[in-house]
Amino acid sequence: MNTVATIILLCSITINVNPYRIDKRQVENTFAPVQVKMAQESFECGKELALEVMGMKVPNHYGILKETNPATEKVWGCIWKRLQLIDEDSVLNQENIENHFIDTMKAAVHDSLIDKQSMKFIVERCKNFRGSNHGATAIKVQNCITERIALFAFFEKVFQSSMFN
Description:
Keywords: Signal
CATH topology: Recoverin, domain 1
Low-confidence stretches: 15-27
Shape: globular
Structural class: mainly alpha
Helix content: 55-70%
InterPro entries: PBP/GOBP, PBP_GOBP_sf
Number of strands: 0
CATH superfamily: Pheromone/general odorant binding protein domain
Signal peptide: 1-19
GO molecular function: odorant binding
Distance between the termini: 52 Å
Strand content: under 5%
Mean pLDDT: 80
Order of helices and strands: HHHHHHH
């Protein structure tokens, strides 16, 4: 049970889901579908991987995952596979990745200006990162996307500020 709780907590931190609201009745009414799906797949990966997840490192406060941790690679590889973002051979599904991150951004930042074209540009820049397995590749690509979304959000705020109006 600690393993499952660890997975839910880590994924909650990553996608800004309140870890105290995992009760199914509250989840359906409180969170966006992408957040519910992420929590469900994380839970399933926790059950599937059991004690293997105990060595997973928590993402830093910017949402960046540690790239050299075997437990994190297994968990993230499992989650990305279940979300159909990557396959066992590290082949990325670019369209699913774009849609997943757009939905995640809309759920986390309701007034985000990031659109399909911007996300496509970001994913294009990140899709060639590769790791030693599908989990390592998922982490490298996600970290790349997370960093670029943060830059996009920063510039979005700068250009929306009164300095440019």
